[in-house]
Amino acid sequence: MDELFDEGKRDSAIGRMKVLLGTYFDGDASRLATLLDPTRLGSPLHQFRTEMADGFARLNERLAALEASGAARASERSKSSAKGTDFEDTIEALLGDVTRGSGDLLERTGTDTGTAMGSKKGDFVLSLNAEATAGCELRVVVECKDRYVSGRAMRDELREAKSNRDAAVALVVFTPAHAPAGIAPFDVRAGDVYCVVDPAVPDPATLEAAVRLARLLAFQTLRERDVEVDAAAVSEALKGIREQLETLRALKMTLTSIGTSAKEVYAGLDRLRDGILARLVEAEAELRHT
């Protein structure tokens, strides 16, 4: 019995069991190691590994194809009018929020012809509340620009848009990439309002201020039509706004020449924008009381 279960003897029962089990479980050359090694050709896990690698390769090819297709579509979209349409959608939503409750009527008119023969200039028309205009029809035409336009071409286009939509004042909204230098966040040029709105992170306050400024400029034209309006209040408000716009320009010039005070200047720009908005609200309140 001792010899039968002697671990030191290879021909004992225990010795033979050790040899047999070692063949299957002991060391890198064992049967179990061969079966579980995914790098060994012929092992079950090697086949599984090959199938998984092939699957990931096919998935990677599909993702690469989808990415290339998306990039191609984006490139084509940037060259077409679809990108501009997306920007118009953003501005339409913002204009809707700005004009809600004001009594003004907002219309999207970019696909409709106006009074000029075959002309579709003027993406939006804002018809001001008749109660505020003493029953006189008063409109602001809005243009959205997600492409480069020279200064002279822009002035011509706004003049045509005002004529086509029978509007007193034009408001043009640019994306940051295509805005003329010096107009951010908004400015008055040749009697029209220019402003910049980033479609990626749109600032409703900027567009609201620009719209209110355009409304005030439109109200100022009522004097030419002999309509009862507190012209002094409008003129005083516009004077104060223009003074703040000049300060705004000065701050932006400072911003381009310094770096360490950039945060302070940006904060000043925000305060000025809020101050202009407050003056616009005061002017509108004066008009409501006339």
**Class from helix and strand fractions:** alpha/beta
Evaluate the radius of gyration: 36 Å
Q: Residue share in helices?
A: 55-70%
User: What integer is the average pLDDT?
Assistant: 76
Sketch the topology as an H/E string, one letter per element.
HHHHEEEHEEEHHH
Share of residues in strands: 5-15%
In terms of per-residue confidence, which ranges show pLDDT below 50 for 5 or more consecutive residues?
none
| Count of distinct strands | 6
Give the tally of structural domains: 2
Task: Describe the protein's architecture and organization.
- By secondary structure, this protein is α/β, with parallel strands linked by helices.
- It has 2 domains: 13-77, no CATH class; 82-289, no CATH class.
- 55% of the residues lie in helices and 10% in strands.
- The protein is built from 8 helices and 6 strands; from the N terminus they run H-H-H-H-E-E-E-H-E-E-E-H-H-H.
- A 6-stranded mixed β-sheet has the order 1-2-3-4-6-5.
- Strand 5 and strand 6 form a beta hairpin.
- Helix 4 (82-99) crosses helix 6 (204-220) and helix 6 (204-220) crosses helix 8.
- The longest helix has 36 residues, at 44-79.
- The radius of gyration is 36 Å and the shape is elongated.
- The chain starts with 12 loop residues before the first helix and ends with a helix.
